[in-house]
Amino acid sequence: MTSQAHVLTHPLRRLTIAAFFPALILSTIDASLSGPVRIAGFSGIFISAIVSTFLLCFKRRNPTKGHGGLKVSILIFIYDTLSAAGLLVFLIFTWIYLGGMWRDARRAVLTAYASVPYILVFCIHAYLALLTLIDFIDRPRHCPHCECDLYSRTPDAAPGFSHAQVSRGVYSSLHGVDHQAVERPSVDSDADEDARLLGDEESRVGLVQNIVPVPIGGTGKDEIKVEIV
Fold first, then answer.
1. pTM beyond 0.70, yes or no
2. C or N: which end of the chain has fewer Cβ atoms within 10 Å?
C-alpha cells in the first residue's frame, strides 16, 4: 500500500519547484512575442511550486507530526487532479495554437520549448494523483489486530451491544509483533456450559430427599434420618 506521507513529500514534488524557473523565463519570452495570453498557464506552475514548497518545508520542520489522515489525502488528491487537468487544458490550447504557426517556425519552436516545463509538471501531478487513488483503493477494510470491519457495522443485536463484521483472513502483523490467533468463545458453547452447570446443580439437590425425624427410644429426642436417593 502506498504511504500517505510518501505521496505528500514525494521527491517528484521537488521537480515542480525546479520547473518553475525555466517556465518563468521561457513563458515570459514567449508571451513577449505571442501575446500575454500565452503566460496564462504559468499560474498553474506557480501554484504548484508554492504548494510543493509548503509541503516539503512542513515535513522538514515537523518530521514526527501526523499527516491528517484521510481528509488530507482527499485534499491532496483533489489538488493534484485539478492541477493536472488545468495544465492539460492549457497544453491542448497550446498545441492548437502551434498548428496555426507553421509559417513562423521560430515562434513555433520557442512555444514548443516553453511547453516542456508544463508537460513535466502535468505528468508529475497526474502520477501523484494516481498514487493517491491507489492508496484509497488499497486501504484495508479490517483491523490487522482484531480483524474488525473498519467501515460497515451490522445493526445492534441487543441494546448496548454492537457486533462488527469479522473477517477470517490472516493479516500481517504491525511493528514486528507476530500474529497470534485468538480463539473467540461462541454463543453455543456458552449455552452448553450453562446447561451443564444447571444440570449439576439439580443433581446435587436431588441427592437429598425425604428428611424424616425418627424418635430415639427412651431418650425423648428425635433423630433426623436422611434418605439418600
1. no
2. C
> Are 178 and 185 spatial neighbours (Cβ–Cβ below 8 Å)?
no
Among residues 202, 207, 201, 200, the alpha carbon closest in space to that of 227 is found at 207
The span from the CA of 24 to the CA of 26, in Å, is 6
Task: For the chain, state the CA radius of gyration.
Answer: 38
Amino acid at position 19, single letter: A
The owner of cell 441487543 is: 158
Q: Would you state the cell numbers that stand for residue 162, as one nine-digit string?
A: 454492537
pLDDT digits (tens, 9 = 90+) for 1-21: 445 556 777 888 999 999 999
Concatenate the DSSP letters of all residues of 19-82 into one string: THHHHHHHHHHHHHHH-GGGGTTHHHHHHHHHHHHHHHHHHHH-TTS---THHHHHHHHHHHHH
